[in-house]
Design goal:
phosphoprotein, 12 helices, histidine kinase, about 10% strand, five-stranded mixed β-sheet, about 60% helix, ATP binding, membrane, Heat Shock Protein 90, HATPase_dom, alpha+beta
């Protein structure tokens, strides 16, 4: 219980309170007109000018109710308390206008837009005012019960909308985080892949230019092709991020594109083996297999020492598909590839689809990456 009260006390104001708009102006103006008309035409109203002027104090309070919820509630309910005190001391009839029911809007705004401290302080003040009003009006138990229930309903309604908005904000933050991680994985798996190829070609180009100058043009052409692919990937991502209208998305690469991925890496030799009984995979699994294989191949090209071949094997098992990428590079002496963003991104792709992922030195040397992804649940 103490933890709950402490949590309520420390609750900040909601961050998305809208500014004063046309509807707020219409609400304040409509209340002013209603208060003036009632103050003029209502029969038997004691202290008519004073009551009408005090009621008009609620006009600015209705406009401030979201930006300054405690001030607005204190102002509106303070007017109600003053009228109850006057009624009690002067022994007059009811001094309130029916339009003063607008104080319920201020109570709603206090519970909806106020901080925890403001809500607690405001509700304590409203409780005192309501008790004073009930005493001044000599209200019976039925009226007391009805008034308390009405106030509790207003507060509960505000709390429900506040909670709903908070859940929506949290959901939006989760969606943004998921999209951010997805974009980071795509940037790493696509752009970084091409940049790695450019770096390898550039390193080889220095050797080729010195030993076989006539082949330098081939190396430069390969670098140009990879650079063009990188630029195209970047432009595609930027267009998707910047354009609000629908974008024609290119189909995601999949298992069928693995041979083309292998041909893009003449050194080391890349061999792709796909199980002949392979059925079409669900889109998310198909794309994940390709991206994990792509990143594994990039790591082999960049990190595997003295590697001459890389094997990419894809096979369908009972209710799942298994990807295995292995190279024949040396893993000793020294540690394997550092666990950077590449391995993390591959593991995240597998986990998001309910699969498993592992990476480490192979039993016969080299580095082995394995991913097992379920397909039956997504079919």
């Amino acid at each position: 219980m103490v933890a709950v009260l402490s949590s309520v006390w420390e609750e900040p104001r909601p961050p998305d309170a809208p500014p004063i708009g046309r509807l707020d102006q219409l609400l304040a103006g409509g209340f002013a007109v209603a208060a003036l008309v009632e103050g003029i035409v209502r029969p038997g109203l004691d202290w008519r000018p004073l009551v009408t002027v005090l009621a008009l104090v609620l006009v600015p309070a209705l406009s401030w109710r979201r930006q300054r919820p405690l001030t607005a509630a204190a102002l509106g309910w303070g007017v109600a308390g003053i009228l109850s005190a006057l009624q009690l001391t002067a022994n007059t009839g009811d001094l309130g206008l029916y339009s003063m029911a607008a104080v319920l809007v201020l109570l709603y705004s206090l519970a909806r837009w106020g901080s925890g401290r403001e809500v607690v302080a405001g509700l304590a003040f409203v409780t005192v005012v309501v008790a004073l009003g009930m005493y001044a009006a000599s209200a019976g138990w039925a009226e007391l019960f009805g008034g308390v229930v009405l106030l509790l309903l207003v507060v509960a309604l505000a709390a429900a909308f506040r909670y709903r908005a908070d859940v929506s904000r949290r959901r939006q933050r989760e969606i943004r985080n998921d999209e951010r991680l997805s974009l980071a994985r795509d940037l790493h798996d696509t752009v970084a892949h091409h940049v790695s190829a450019i770096a390898v070609q550039a390193q080889a180009g220095g050797v080729v230019a010195a030993a076989q100058p006539e082949r330098a043009a081939e190396v430069l052409a390969a670098i140009e092709i990879e650079a063009s692919r990188t630029l195209a990937e970047m432009r595609s991502m930027v267009r998707v991020l910047r354009e609000e209208d629908a974008v024609d998305f290119a189909p995601q690469p999949g298992v069928a594109d693995l041979p083309a991925l292998a041909r893009a890496h003449p050194s080391p030799t890349v061999e792709v083996v796909v199980d002949g009984s392979q059925h079409p995979l669900p889109g998310p699994v198909d794309a994940a297999i390709y991206r994990i294989a792509q990143e594994s191949l990039t790591n082999a090209v960049r990190h595997a020492r003295s590697a001459t071949s890389v094997a990419i094997d894809v096979c369908r098992e009972a209710g799942s598909v298994r990807l295995r990428v292995s190279d024949d590079g040396r893993t000793e002496p020294g540690p394997g590839p550092a666990r950077g963003f590449g391995l993390r991104g591959m593991a995240e792709r597998a986990e998001l689809l309910g699969g498993s992922f592992s990476a480490g030195p192979g039993p016969d040397g080299g580095w082995v990456v394995e991913a097992v992804l379920p397909v039956e649940a997504l079919s």
